[in-house]
Amino acid sequence: MIKVGIVGGTGYTGVELLRLLLAHPRVDIALITSRAEAGRPVADLFPSLRGRIELSFSDPDDEALAACDVVFFATPHNVAMRSVPALLAAGARVIDLSADFRIRDAGLWEQWYGEPHLCPELLGEAVYGLPERHRETIRDARLLACPGCYPTAVQLGFMPLLEEGLIDTQTLIANAVSGVSGAGRQAKIDNLLSEVSDSFKAYGVSGHRHLPEIEQGLSAMAAQPVSLTFVPHLAPMIRGIHATLYGALNAAGRAADLQALYEDAYAHEPFVDVLPAGQYPQTRSVRGANTCQLALSVPQNRETVVVTVVEDNLVKGAAGQAIQCMNLMFGEDESAGIALPGLLP
Ligand SMILES: NC(=O)C1=CN([C@@H]2O[C@H](COP(=O)(O)OP(=O)(O)OC[C@H]3O[C@@H](n4cnc5c(N)ncnc54)[C@H](OP(=O)(O)O)[C@@H]3O)[C@@H](O)[C@H]2O)C=CC1
Ligand SMILES: CC(=O)N[C@@H](CCC(=O)OP(=O)(O)O)C(=O)O
């Protein structure tokens, strides 16, 4: 059995990890932390877990966490990097759902996250947890940096086009929409029901912290620097991300069978589903599932390709993808515990 610790068990991604890991055949959850709820039974805070878990929340404690085989950090950024060196030194492996180890350049990280990075020497070792791109290196990772929710959708959507060199790398556009759970579970006036319902807005247009992470990943796919216009939006739904991606096709792209390209590229991926031509993915279809669904469209002028992508931000965008990586790291079936259909048809 894999002995698991979760830091940040009361947040949205933390409880999603719990929901999925409790159904995992090879996982034993040893520790779940919360500073605010220390001592309280987990099932008392989350009644959906009644009868499924006996543990109570505990205060984060690196010594206790170090006895786990793997520790998940479902915490805001600037938290995991305080504990990771000690946990790795003690032999534990770490899967960080936050942004602490996603950007390889410490200076760029500090520019976007506004604090000095506490262990820049580990940035080169951290493996970016996008299995569709880094499956083999994930297997050997001690330190796994889970991609952000928007970055997962945008990178999976553009990947085959960039790897094959079929679009202009300087004019990429991603319009992406998130449900409110993407902002976390802590109380914020902006996220009140009365603020977000019956409303739709863009935010972070002049610069969102996911931009450098996405450009880093896309540039590696294209083997040259890419430039992306990234516009995130908030929609009145709880879960889900919908991204609409635009790429200007070059001559090779205009001549290619893009539907076949995507179907072939993702044919053996358990969690990427390319829809038949003419269909468009909906967030409701992947709610609760570790699935990224996408569709290709080429408007009649054949100048631009449009890729529409959906995922559940808390599953393929966070906890599900983290477990997919854990399965790879521990030699388990990649789909163990996460082979779930969406909650709605
Ligand atoms: N929500 C989403 O859709 C996604 C989120 N992520 C990332 O995952 C991480 C968690 O997100 P989310 O679950 O939404 O966050 P939440 O705000 O919902 O939960 C944060 C959790 O972290 C704990 N925590 C906060 N500060 C500390 C600290 N200093 N030390 C230890 N524990 C702490 C909190 O509990 P307590 O304060 O009681 O200790 C709480 O359990 C973030 O980095 C986020 O960016 C990634 C992809 C998608
Ligand atoms: C709706 C909303 O506010 N979303 C968050 C991003 C989601 C998130 O948690 O960021 P990571 O994926 O990097 O962890 C935001 O825009 O900051």
From TrEMBL:
Keywords: Amino-acid biosynthesis, Arginine biosynthesis, Cytoplasm, NADP, Oxidoreductase. It catalyses: N-acetyl-L-glutamate 5-semialdehyde + phosphate + NADP(+) = N-acetyl-L-glutamyl 5-phosphate + NADPH + H(+). Its main location: cytoplasm. It comes from the Bacteria. One of its GO terms (cellular component) is cytoplasm. Residues 3-141 form the Semialdehyde dehydrogenase NAD-binding domain. Its EC number is 1.2.1.38. It is an enzyme of class 1 (oxidoreductase). It is found in: Cytoplasm. Belongs to the NAGSA dehydrogenase family. Type 1 subfamily. This is N-acetyl-gamma-glutamyl-phosphate reductase.
